[in-house]
Hints:
By secondary structure, the protein is mostly helical. It has two helices and no strands.
Amino acid sequence: MAVPVVLAQNGWRTDELLQRIAGTSKNETFDFVNLLIGVNNQYQNKNHETY
């Protein structure tokens, strides 16, 4: 069984997650992805279109 890879950190906005994903190796593939969307964009007064 493979060890899970965590790309994000608690409290990140969607733009921070996208930056992290863009910085990962293009050779990595994932069989399963879990994304929990919260209210960090709203809490930090970011534009709703970005969310």
